[in-house]
Amino acid sequence: MSSRSRPRDSIRLTGLTATGHHGVFDFEKREGQTFRVDVELTVDFRAAGRSDDLADTVSYVEIAELVQAGITGAPFDLIEALAEHLARAILRSDERIAATEVTVHKPQAPLPQSFQDVSVTARRDRADLLADPAAELAPNPAAGQTPGQDPAGAPGPEVAAVLALGSNLGESAVTLASAVTALEGTQRVRVLKQSPVARTSPVGGPADQPDFLNQVIEIATTLSPQELLRRTQAIEAEHHRARGAENGEIRWGPRTLDIDIISYGQARISSETLQVPHPRAAQRGFVLVPWTWMDPQAHLAGRPVAELARDTADFDTVQPLEHAP
Predict the structure, then answer these.
(1) Crossing angle of helices 225-238/60-72, nearest 10°?
(2) Phi and psi angles of residue 233, each rounded to the nearest 5 degrees, phi first
(3) What's the pLDDT tens digit per position in 109-166?
(4) Helices and strands (H and E) in the chain: how many
(5) Residue 124, SS3?
(6) How many C-beta neighbours within 10 Å does residue 84 have?
(7) Rounded to an integer, what is the distance from CA 141 to the centroid of its chain?
(8) Which region, left, alpha or beta, applies to residue 209 given φ > 0 means left and ψ of -120 to 50 means alpha?
(9) Helix, strand, coil proportions of the chain in percent (round to 5)?
């Protein structure tokens, strides 16, 4: 690349902070601690500077969500491995990123000496991906995580995620089965468990809409939270979901297919497009009850799902489809 065409611009995110469970010692993985990440992206945003259009530049919102998911996701022994994972994930997220510098801070590192911070910095560019596409480390196997595989052949940590599916328009049972099949056919996604289908009364929204059919599934994926969200919304669209009030959708109203991301590993994400764990899942019997059928020992935000389910207003209305009247 000539000096005239080489990207000279940068986007910086400083002090992205979240709780992670990375470290060599058992208590670090068990109790967790604060990690802080600084990211610099080398890009060319001349087009965005002229157009003032988000489509012409890299979304720092998505980069921030990717970093947060990395911090809160599957644990690594070393912050060097976390920095490597984040740098490569960032480069793979958008081909317009020519290079990135990722600094991982561990201010609560278990040192007996008085100190302010421990940090490592990874500097990677697209040539690093091409030269060594399989260099990314998987998390520590002792932490109970299984390495995944992306289409380019670069191993990354699989994350367990729970999805809730619902439908009350059209042939809903067929729609739910079709949606699960679509997820099974998605690269970098494995369907691990499926709950029985439940028939449930509508909660919120118009009172005169049909009953819903609901199902909960558990997947393992190497997709980022935003990639998984885009995939679930694409499956909704394939099943004729008209998302948003501008398309005539009524809040909590009837729909051909709804797929919610309930949890994504241990990640806590709060953005305009995605909140994980799902902010209303703990009050929804139509999510929690089928989840207990699939996994009686499941937990959500540190509480047993079975316990949460019993406290929901619609607990008694959720019935297995084959037993429903």
Answers:
(1) 110
(2) -70, -35
(3) 999 999 999 999 999 998 887 766 545 444 443 333 333 333 333 435 789 999 999 9
(4) 9, 16
(5) strand
(6) 21
(7) 21
(8) beta
(9) 35, 25, 40
Show me where the domains of the chain are located. 9-135, 159-323
CATH no. for 9-135? 3.30.1130.10
- What's the CA angle centered on 164, arms 163 and 167, to 5 degrees? 140
Q: Which amino acid is at 270?
A: S
Q: Do domains 9-135 and 159-323 have the same CATH topology?
A: no
Q: Euclidean distance between the first and final Cα of the chain, in Å?
A: 68
Give per-residue pLDDT as tens, 153-203.
343 578 999 999 999 888 999 999 999 999 999 999 999 999 999 998 877
pLDDT band at 9 (very low <50, low <70, confident <90, very high): very high
DSSP 47: H
* DSSP 8-class letter at 177: H
**Which stretches does DSSP call E strand in the chain?**
9-20, 33-43, 99-105, 119-125, 147-149, 155-157, 159-167, 189-194, 198-200, 212-221, 258-264, 269-270, 275-276, 299-300, 303-304, 319-320
pTM: 0.54
Query: Which candidate in 106, 124, 239, 255 is catalytic?
Result: 106
Are the C-beta atoms of residues 11 and 45 closer than 8 Å to each other?
Answer: yes
193 is catalytic: no
Which structure tokens are listed for 163?
A: 């999805």
Superfamily of domain 159-323: 7,8-Dihydro-6-hydroxymethylpterin-pyrophosphokinase HPPK (3.30.70.560)
Residue 118 near residue 109, CB atoms below 8 Å: yes
* Structural contact between residues 234 and 148, judged by C-beta atoms closer than 8 angstroms: no
- Whole-number Cα distances in Å, 244 to 31, 184, 258, 307: 40, 26, 12, 33
Rounded Cα distance between 138 and 124, Å, is 18
φ, ψ at 162 (rounded to 5°): -115, 130
